[in-house]
Amino acid sequence: MSAPELRSLTLPIQTRRLVLRDYVATDTSAVFSYVKEPSFWQFQRADAPTVEQVDTLLQ
């Protein structure tokens, strides 16, 4: 699928086992719970973000 095709997808997309939707402000703690894990960052050149940075990103 090309980038223009991806941009034209309308969210939410829902299957029997999965829902893809836009982030909302209340997702901060859920997102931070996985991005704080060292294994998430093991191949990245950046450090893990703070909870405040995650909150700002989701706003």
Molecular structure report:
The protein is mostly helical and 59 residues long. It has a domain at 22-59. It contains four helices and two strands, in the order αββααα. It has helices at 3-7, 28-35, 38-41, 51-58, and strands at residues 13-14, 19-20. A two-stranded antiparallel sheet has the order 1-2. Helix 2 (28-35) crosses helix 4. The radius of gyration is 14 Å and the shape is extended. The two termini are 28 Å apart. The model has no long low-confidence stretch (mean pLDDT 88).
Taken in chain order, the helices and strands follow as HEEHHH
> In percent terms, what proportion of residues is strand?
5-15%
Total DSSP E strands: 2
Sequence of strands across the biggest β-sheet:
1-2
Distance between the termini: 28 Å
What coarse outline follows from CA principal-axis ratios? extended
Mean pLDDT: 88
Low-confidence stretches: none
Give the radius of gyration.
14 Å
Task: Assign a percent range to the helix content.
Answer: 40-55%
Structural class: mainly alpha
Number of helices: 4
Task: Give the biggest sheet.
Answer: 2 strands, antiparallel
List key phrases describing it:
mainly alpha, two-stranded antiparallel sheet, about 60 residues
Q: Summed up, what is this model?
A:
This protein has helices at 3-7, 28-35, 38-41, 51-58, and strands at 13-14, 19-20. By secondary structure, the protein is mainly alpha-helical.
List the helices and strands and how they pair.
Layout: H1 3-7, E1 13-14, E2 19-20, H2 28-35, H3 38-41, H4 51-58
Helix pairs in contact: 2-4
